[in-house]
């Protein structure tokens, strides 16, 4: 009689723990837009959520500690003229966030420590070049000030935020249809894209060449997502011909057949994958689902191992994922998600059960730190480098706030003048202020005339 052997893994018993009510963010109006992005971005300082806004696009930025009920008049980032579709924090500066919008622009913002006290309408830089809405924004993982954007004009643009210039463009000849997702490799040398033409492509962005591509990784017609995982592999989520949701693991050198293909269920929501390179765990969060599945990726067959699933009663409208340096290592927390409900944001901690309170070195290998490994010029010159690693043994201490400086002397005409991080206003901002001052002076003069007439009338009586 054969006995089935259970695979040994230290992550077999990982469990999800939702935060208590007083640790959630209440009364936030999450965006109703149907775009398939997470609508939430998190780092060790702030949580940002795309919100419903009248007369344009806005997103909310709150310090992590500012939990509880959010005031309905809380200041927001509201510079876009159409709904915001995607937001992402800079990995090398916890005060800088980028946003893509239906108004065809990408804007980069600097959030002051402690959060906003007034609505933020002036970005540090506006990146203009797309002709249709911008649905994907992604920072380079190791090069400073390099930002990628993908629009519904089927164009991918790579920007040097330090100059406000588009330094690379991948036109519609590479992607003939809408781009669903873009993901950087760990060293930033390649990008992986999924497209409406049912192809997944691996691209060297500096040369503009497609290194490898796979036609129809999933047979269904619904959107596919693709991310890089460990050891030259990519993971895709999609749908079968019978509309069953699937997850597949591929070797980038042999894309003919998947290393692993698993069918999950028949729900209709697109699965958003989040990969943790430190533990080799991938988390799948479906929009409209009420669960988070997680799998471990290994180097031996069958390569993709189902671990468990966190379930709750309410479905999720979006999801944010905390970088490893923002976790509580003394509680053996290996991941934290920020689940968006209709009017609430709920943190969910994924924890490995351990009895000891000591630092668990096997759970926390050196992880990506906040310092860039390359400058934009070095990366554009052909250099690649993995992230600079830090140890979490003594806890993560955030560095001092860094200013994002934009060199306007290298303006290419694609970018509107914007205020520098030092606080010097742009010429546009100065002219607007002067116009407001003139209007105010006219109002004061009119009030003074009325007051004089009123005094004359009183004296006459």
Automatic annotation (TrEMBL):
WD repeats: 77-111, 127-169
GO BP term, pick one: negative regulation of cellular component organization
Record bears the keyword Transmembrane helix: no
GO MF annotation list: actin filament binding
SUPFAM superfamilies from the UniProt entry: WD40 repeat-like
Region (Disordered): 403-432
Name of one Pfam family that matches: DUF1899
Subcellular localization: Cytoplasm, Cell cortex; Cytoplasm, Cytoskeleton; Cytoplasmic vesicle, Phagosome membrane
Alphabetic keyword roster: Acetylation, Actin-binding, Coiled coil, Cytoplasm, Cytoplasmic vesicle, Cytoskeleton, Membrane, Phosphoprotein, Repeat, Ubl conjugation, WD repeat
Entries under InterPro entries matching the protein: Coronin (IPR015505), DUF1899 (IPR015048), Trimer_CC (IPR015049), WD40/YVTN_repeat-like_dom_sf (IPR015943), WD40_repeat_CS (IPR019775), WD40_repeat_dom_sf (IPR036322), WD40_rpt (IPR001680)
Keyword Transferase tagged: no
Gene3D superfamilies with a match to the protein in the record: YVTN repeat-like/Quinoprotein amine dehydrogenase
Coiled coil (UniProt feature): none
Occurrences of domain DUF1899 (ranges): 4-68
GO cellular component: cell cortex; cytoskeleton; lamellipodium; phagocytic vesicle membrane
Family of this protein: Belongs to the WD repeat coronin family.
Subunit structure: Binds actin.
Protein name: Coronin
Organism, scientific name: Callithrix jacchus
